[in-house]
Structures are given as C-alpha cells and as structure tokens.
Amino acid sequence: MIPRYALPEMAELWSDETRYRTWARVEVLASEAQARLGRVPPDAVEDLRRARVPSPRRVAEIERERDHEVLSFLAAFCEDVPEESARWVHLGMTSYDLVDTALGFTLARATDLLIQAGRALRRALVGKALDHRDTVCVGRTHGVHAEPTTLGHKLAGFAFAVDRSLLRLTAAREAVAVGTISGSVGTYALIDPSVERHVCDALGLGVEPAPSQVVARDRHAQLVQAIAALGACVEQIALELRLLQRTEVREVEEARTAAYQGSSAMPHKRNPTTSERLCGLARMLRGYATTALENVALWHERDLTHSSVERIVLPDSLTIGHYQARTAADLIENLTVFPERMRAALDSGSGLVHSSAVLAALLEKGMEREKAYRLVQAAADETARTGEHLAVTLRRQGVDEPLALDGRPARNDIVIARLESLRELED
User: Fold this and answer.
1) Burial of 172 (0-12, 13-18, 19+ CB in 10 A)
2) Nearest Cα to Cα of residue 154 among 178, 187, 171, 131
3) 243-259 residue pLDDT tens
4) What is the extent of the structural domain holding 400?
5) Rounded mean pLDDT of the chain?
6) Backbone angles phi, psi at 207, to 5 degrees
7) Count: domains in the chain
8) Where in this chain does the record put each Adenylosuccinate lyase C-terminal domain (predicted)?
9) Are 136 and 281 members of one domain?
10) Helix axis angle, 95-131 relative to 16-36, nearest 10°?
11) Dihedral pair phi/psi, residue 270, rounded to 5°
12) Are 338 and 250 in contact (CB under 8 A)?
C-alpha cells in the first residue's frame, strides 16, 4: 500500500523487517520443540535464539542468486549461526510451514488493529447519534423528500451496520489465526505434530486441522470479504455525508484545517474530499474481495498462484480498512451539523412530508382507503404546484379538522433505546 493511506502501526506490521523477525521467531520455536523431542541439540537452539534477524537488503542480495525467498532468508539467518548449529534450522519443515504460520500471526495482529479502529468508529457514531437524537431533518427516499426523521436515527443505522461488521471481523480473525508445521504435502512425515502445537500455542494460533502443506485460503477470503463489508458500510456513511454537503443542501460539513484548500482555481470551494476518499477506497476493497476468492482453489495439495496475489491483497486490504475506519471516526467526531438548515429543508416542501400522517388520520376517521389516498394525493399535487401549505389545500378540499403537522418523527425513542445498548458495549 502506498504510504498515503497507511497508518504507522499497520504499516509496521507489513514491513519486511517485521516479516523476517516473525519468520525467525517461528524457526526458533520449531527448534525448541525439536529439542524437546531430542532431535535438535540444546546448544543449537541457544545459537538460533542469539542470531540476528537478517535485513531485507541481505535477503534480497541472496535471492538474486537463489530466486527463492525462504531459502534466501534461511541462508541469511544462518550467516549469524555457527555451522554445527545452522544445519538444524528448518528441520523437517517446508517453506509454507514457515510462511503460513508467520502469516497467521501477522493477520491476527493486523485484524486486531482493524477491529480497534472499527470500535472507535462505532463509538463515534453512537456518540454523535445520541447528541442529535432530537435534531429533526427530512428523510429522503430516491433522493426525494419522504418523511421527517432525525439525524440521530440516521447515524444510529450506520452505528449498527459497523457493529455487524465488527462481528464479521471477529469471526474472520479466528478463521485466519491459524498455522501449520506439517511438512511437505501436510502429512507430518518428517516432523512430529507436537512441534506444530508448540509453535502455534506460543504464537496464539490455532492449527489447520487437515493441512495440504498450506493453510486453506478460504480463511483469507473470509477476512478480505469482512473487510470489504466494513468498507461498504464506511462508504454508505461517507456517501450520505457527501450528499448532505451539497451546496443546495448543506446540512453538515466536514471539519476543515487552516491548511485546507478546496480548489486550485476556485477559492470558495469547500469540497467533501474526505468523504469522497473513503468512497473511492471502498471500491478497492470490493475488488480485493473478489481476488481473494480466486485464491481459494489451488492445484492438488498446493500451487503458487496465490502467493503473488496475497502479497498485495492481504496487506492492502487491512491497511485500507484500517485507514478507512480511523478516518471515518475522525470525520464523524468532528462533523459540523447545521440543524437550522435541516429544519429549513423540512419546511421547504410546504407540509408535503406529512402526507402519510394525513392519510393515516383520514383512515382512522373511517374514510375508504382509495378515496383517502386520492384526496391527499390531489392536495399534495396542488401544493407542489402552488406552493401553499398542504394544510391550507386540504381545508379547501373539505378536510377541516386540524392535523398534527409539527414535523417531529414518532417513535424515535425506540431507536435511541436500542442505540444505548451499543454504548454499553463501549463501557
């Protein structure tokens, strides 16, 4: 991932330095288990523990000669290990015992960072929704004024969507937090299963129950799909904020720093650039979700078609998802809301947003449904044409009794009560 969208703590997890440090840890843990079985001398284990982690530059130098990253890493690692001890490195293992077990460890840590960011976004949405539980605004369907709602209700829907995404991510975290130390084609022919158990226990990983030499890639696909789903939820939030920031609407506005410049040519522009960025990144995540599914099917016990793909898809998905969630949380926390603009938009339709309330009142008074619907529809059409208030038009059409058209949505308290349950999760 390009540095522009990579936050430091996530970028560090996917650096070559961290990857080789994790590989070295897996090799040391495996040698410890082998020593317990009497297959590796204890002194060799101590030498491996003291060895320096090779630099990415040194591994790359060797790889130009060997064209195999794992063998190049092992060669570089063993340069700092006495020869009599170096021969015990990687005993009974195959390359992906090392790669996949280390990957499971990294994926678990990276997903933890993403879950933390998702929780921060949920917390921001819950807080802002509760702050605006009574901020009345117009609800829109098909982009057209529908009925009154509240900003709190709108944000509550987003908060629950993020909460569902967190449940999916938690399940996916469990799915990817596995390793395997089972040898060629996963048969344990040259390595005792206790080695696998020792390594995975030390790393906090589960064990692939029936390894084929690699960890099953449906696990990774599940994670990338969960990230894409969170990305789609963030996109939904950002898209709504983009629409509400249009000049003719301007019900909310993103926070601006003193350095903000919206256009190189038009100084007046206040563009929803953060929201637009979040929407664009969601497109990347959906593409990665499809690509991750392509990685599931491999030839026989394994092939290498997945390797080049997941070097991009896995770190990029987690990095983008993490950036998205953190940025969205900041966006929500610092959002400026214009309640007076919301009220003006609600009132601009001359009462048309209350047509369903009028219809319901007429039905309760005993009017036949089709007649009531046609009456209200005709009045609404006339109001749209003339601009007079719907109540005035209705009185002229014989609906004389006053109707409660104050613009306050009913039952908002139900959604707010449910929202309180999410706040309790944070406590």
Assistant:
1) buried
2) 131
3) 999 999 999 999 887 77
4) 352-404
5) 93
6) -120, 135
7) 3
8) 350-420
9) yes
10) 120
11) -125, 80
12) yes
Structure tokens, 210: 């029936």
User: Quick check: is 263 catalytic?
Assistant: yes
pTM for the whole structure: 0.94
Catalytic residue selected from 263, 348, 356, 421: 263
Q: φ, ψ for residue 135 (rounded to 5)?
A: -85, 100
Rounded to 5°, the CA angle 48-50-53 comes to 80
185 and 117 in one domain? yes
CA angle 241, 405, 357 (to 5 degrees): 85
Q: Which of 110-119, 322-331, 342-351 has the lowest mean pLDDT?
A: 342-351
Residues 250 and 374 in one domain: no
Return all residues near 328 (Cβ < 8 A) that are at least 6 apart: 121, 124, 234, 237, 238, 278
Helix (H) / strand (E) element for 244: namely helix 218-244
- Domain assignment of residue 243, yes or no: yes
- Do both 427 and 287 map to the same domain? yes
* Chain centre to alpha carbon of residue 250: 28
**198: annotated active-site residue:** no
Cβ-Cβ contacts under 8 Å for 292 (sequence gap 6 or more): 217, 220, 221, 223, 224, 225, 309, 310, 313, 314, 317
Q: Which of 393, 289, 313 is nearest to 349 (CA)?
A: 393
Are 59 and 160 in the same domain?
Answer: no
Alpha-carbon distance of 339 to 120, in angstroms, equals 25
Last residue of a domain, one of 57, 91, 125: 91
